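pasting GETHR pentapeptide repeat-containing protein for the record, 683 residues
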Amino acid sequence: MPETLASGLRSAGWLAGLPALALIWASATLYAAPRIAEGLEAEGAAVASGTATATGEPWLRLEASGRDLVAAGEAPDVAERATVLSRLAALDGPRRIVSEVGIVETAAPFQWAAIRTGPNRIALEGSRPVEIGRRALEARITGALHPGTGLDDTARAARGAPPDFASAAAFLAARLSGLAKGGRAALSDTVLSLSGEALDVPAYEALRAALSDPPEGFSIGRIEILPPKVAAYRFAVEKSGRGVVLDGFTPSAADREAALRAATEAAAGGAVEDRLLAARGLDPAIDPKGLIAFAFKLAELIQSGRVVFQDGAVSVTGDAIDGQALPDAEALMRDGRPAGVAAGPVALTARPLSPYRVAIRRTADSVLLTGHLPDTATRERVLAALRPRLFREPVIDRTRLADGAPPDLGDALAAAAPLVANLADGTVTVSDRALTLTGESLYREGAARTPDRLAEALPPGWTGQATVTARDAAERRDPATCRADFTAALAGTDLRFPAGGAVLTPAFYPTLDALAALAKTCPSLRIAVSGPADPAKPTPTPAAGPAATGEGAPAAAPTQIASAAKPEPPKGDTPKTETPKGETPKGDTPKGDTPKTRGKPDHAKTEAGKAEAAKKDARKEPAAHGKASAKKPAEAPEEPPPDLPRLRAQAVVEYLLQAGARPEQVMAGPDGPAGPVVFALLP
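structre below
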């Protein structure tokens, strides 16, 4: 041995042998430790096999840790656990027994979870049914996972599991295949929940579809699945004559629903095709709902074309709805973009409208005009035809001006506007020279007359179709309830006619409408209407003087007599007849305002005519008896027609009949005294 090497060994001394000793120890450990562990587990195998349950699997699980033996599992009871631990302690091989043995208990609620801890690893925790063996349950779950996925099962046996637990556990485990690391599928009694991030768009859609069909007996609880993130986020609205197509992505289900609602409104009865997928990737500075609303504002300006958000910018291409839409789109793109959205190109072409469309929509709250009109004069004409027939409902005008309308469009709309305004709910739609009226009337008679009225009102060359139904309530056969409702409908009412008149005022309508509706639901109801007379007028006191007192009166007031008498006209002059107060001179037409109401019967004019005729007859009576009207004092009040109570009762009866009451249900009763109209129930 060289002197240098020998000198080095002498200097290191015994330290030179440590690496060799370490190598020898490691080799012995690697070789001997597994054999020792196998020996320890083999010694305890007989004890473990003796704990087999009805499932065929032993509840005791043994694992060697060095020279120690670790016992785990859930014993049926305390006594069983003590017996097994004492048998293990009697073994010769183990240095000591480490007990992790628990007792089977009832879990309430029964909870179990599967968690993705890695690409090919699933951890199980919580409680598992004591009735199902561990290996049997693991085999069921592994079969629902991708091949090669391992399980780390720390779930403990417990009582109280829901029926068919294994099916629910396998269903949840299968959903983890579409989630990234950290995804969690859990069960709490019969409620299933899922959370995590989807691996990709197909996985997200598959999860949505699967969660719509849970195992029988189980329900879906809390779902918190994040859509996947995409590099190229886009959103598109395509509009055509067939409808609207949605394409691209939305960050959440709520945003998708918002897009679908907007598309349904934009389609205006056309088809809506949903190609949207859930995905993240939109700039956090952009509000997704604001982006969707902006896209549909642009879509309102095109007949056909596309609105696309891509690479952070919105663009619009296609055919504009009219010439006005081109500057509108430019202004909207310039001033209406949401924060974070850039302006893309606006490539729109104005084409003639074909077909030319306009619509009037009547609801209980408002009247809405949409579509196109040729000019402002036509617009004002349509509005003028609607507004006088509405009480409080606003008219919302959203029409636009465009060329290409039929020359008599204004005539057709002016004729149809009163018809739709008198409906409870309805729509007039015009497409070129075809007009369609649909809706619901408050009264059967009004619904039946509408088609004929529309056909008479349309200009030549137009085609019209009216489909109007009556809003009739279900019949009630209980007479007692009907009578009680009749009394309630009249409670607190005080329906009075104007002095000398037999025309209904708007104050009558709510009460008469309620009575007509009640008559339609109560066929056995029979109502008598008594019209009131006018109050008696006081008799004027005669003026004092010789003309009043006769002979023997004092001649002390000649001045008063002279001032009260009218001077006689000179001979040869024709005396002028003064028109009594309240009368209209012959040849003049009295002006009167008819109450403007929605859906009210038009019998008011008929009754006004009857009352006016009666007044004229009353004025003709003095002439028939040879009395000169010129000698009638100007201050003499106009006398009401003698049958005024009957005329008033007939006006009320006619209204009720037109409002839907049957002829056999309403009749005129005996004339009533001065005061309000009287309604009586007949047996």
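The chain has five domains: 34-103, 106-226, 234-350, 357-470, 473-535+595-625+638-683.
DSSP finds 18 helices and 27 strands in the chain.
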